[in-house]
Structures are given as C-alpha cells and as structure tokens.
Design goal:
Length: about 300
C-alpha cells in the first residue's frame, strides 16, 4: 500500500468476507479499506491462495486470544527492511496496514494465521488493484504430542537462499518441493558451504549447549520468534550467542528448538538419524516454550 493512501476505519471493510469451506480468506488493501476477494473452495492452503500474486515480500504470523498479535511492529519493520534491501522506491504504510489487519481480525474470538504480501507495484486481481494483499486462515495448534515428545527434521542440502535477510514470496515457491509439516519431518535444515547449520526452510533453529543458546545470527532470516526466545533466555539461565554450529558438532548439543511466528517454539529431538541430547525435549526447551506462551499472553496486542 503506498504511503499516501488514507487510513481506514478499523471496524469497516468494503465488502463482506468471502470464506471457503476451509476458512481461507483473501483481501486486497485498497485506499478505502480491505476488499474481500473470492477464494475457490478447492484451494488447499493460504500459500496456494496467494500463488497468483507476483513476487514480493511477505510476513506470516498468528493471533493470540483471537485478535492479538505478538511483535506485529517487528514484522512490519522487517518487511520495510526487505523492501529497502531490494531497493524499492516506496515505503510501507504501517498505519494503514495495522488498521486493515484490525478490520480483518479485530472481532475474532478464535485464533487465525495471517500472511501479508507487499508487492513492488500494484497488481490487479479479480478486478481489484492493490500492492498489499492479506491472507487469513484458521489457526490450529500443533498436536500436544509434538511438544511433549519432540519432532524430527531433515536437511535440504541442495537448497540455499540468495538473500537470506529478505523474506520473499519467491522463496515460498522455491522451498515447496521439500516436504514439511509432520512430526517425522516438520522442516528441512539449510547449511552453508562449510557444512554449518543456518536455519530451516520456514523457521529458525537454536541449540542449547551448557548454559548457552546458540543460533547462527548471520546468513539467516532475522527471526522474530527467535528474537523473543533470546530475550527470554536470561530468565531461565541461558546466554544467547551467535555462532554457525558445524554439522559435525551436533552431537555435542543438549537440546534443539525450531521457532517460527506461526508454529512458535517446537522441540527438535532428531536431525535425520542423529538423536539430539536424550532424544526427548530437554528442560530448557520446556522452560522456553512455557515462557514464550506466557509472554504472548502478556504482550500480544490488537493491531491499531
């Protein structure tokens, strides 16, 4: 949305939302507010619904208590930084986007997942021209067994990000051939040419070793949930440190944690055939998970 666009009434939308059987919704942000678009009943996921859009930058997160976001401003700032790195000659109208998000989810009583795409130029979809689009779908919590028993992950050794600090919608398509989303294969790890751990295809990773919380720091997306966990680490006796951990040192770590703004923190107990620590979620991971959801309950705010 261009900076000169007027702000919108947070309780008003230009038309009633068109909702599929799966609960997917898609909106174009116009000067008069978010305009609901049609989503085919056969559309599988939110990413599928937004595939027709040109390449741009995006962010994805969930709500808490129905209509509250955790660290929304950090998501907006990271989006603006992505636009800057790509040398776009425009700025993100944060006020208008916040108001539009409130219009879309402000009356929700159930949690949802939200993805907003920002395009370099306006694009016409279903007769509506806009440069910001928002997708919404019901949020489903991860099965408790995944948090209780942990998850397994694999490697995507032939996949790499050319601009890891920029969250592009093209990356959503590039990573699609690599399966994710089950307890036995929740995500895929990326490594650098020297065999050091970077991040997942759709999340960050951190390791507990002794009293340290280790994460790559550079060459990866600036993860917002990862940042929250680093802030909470001192509460449970951990010191955050940035280091690209060599793959051959994975046997030395005590615990591993996947983190994303949609899935939150998730204990990783196996990387390919390698068992992490005891093979069960460790005590520091459990404390971080508890601290994270307490933080979300305490700090999540409505978009205004």
């Amino acid at each position: 949305m261009d900076a000169e666009h007027a702000s919108v009434d947070p309780l008003r939308m230009t038309s009633a939302p068109s909702q599929t059987n799966s609960g997917l919704e898609l909106f174009a942000l116009t000067p008069s507010g978010p305009r609901a678009l049609t989503v085919a009943a056969t559309t599988g996921t939110m990413h599928d619904a937004m595939d027709p859009l040109p390449d741009g930058v995006y962010s994805a997160l969930r709500t808490f208590r129905g209509n509250r976001f955790l660290e929304l401003e950090a998501h907006l700032e990271r989006t603006q930084q992505s636009m800057h790195v790509l040398a776009w000659k425009k700025t993100l109208d944060r006020k208008a986007l916040r108001a539009a998000l409130n219009a879309i989810v402000g009356r929700n009583t159930k949690d949802v997942r939200v993805r907003f795409d920002v395009l370099p130029e306006p694009f016409e979809l279903q007769g509506v021209r806009a440069d910001v689009f928002v997708g919404v779908s019901p949020h489903t919590e991860l099965p408790q067994a995944w948090l209780k028993d942990g998850v397994r992950v694999d490697y995507a050794r032939n996949l790499s990000r050319t601009q890891p600090r920029v969250k592009t919608t093209k990356w959503v398509k590039d990573r699609r051939p690599f399966p994710i989303g089950t307890q036995e294969q929740l995500d895929q790890l990326l490594v650098d040419p020297e065999g050091r751990i970077l991040e997942f295809t759709s999340a960050n990773i951190a390791f507990v070793r002794g009293d340290e919380l280790l994460s790559a720091g550079d060459g990866v997306l600036d993860g917002i949930t990862q940042r929250v966990l680093a802030r909470l680490a001192s509460q449970i006796g951990l010191k955050p440190r940035h280091v690209r951990l060599p793959e051959n040192e994975l046997a030395t770590v005590d615990e591993a944690i996947l983190s994303s703004s949609v899935r939150g923190p998730v204990p990783v107990v196996k990387i390919e055939a390698l068992t992490i620590g005891s093979g069960r979620p460790g005590p520091k991971t459990k404390e971080l998970v508890t601290a994270y959801y307490a933080c979300a309950d305490r700090e999540a705010r409505m978009s205004r």
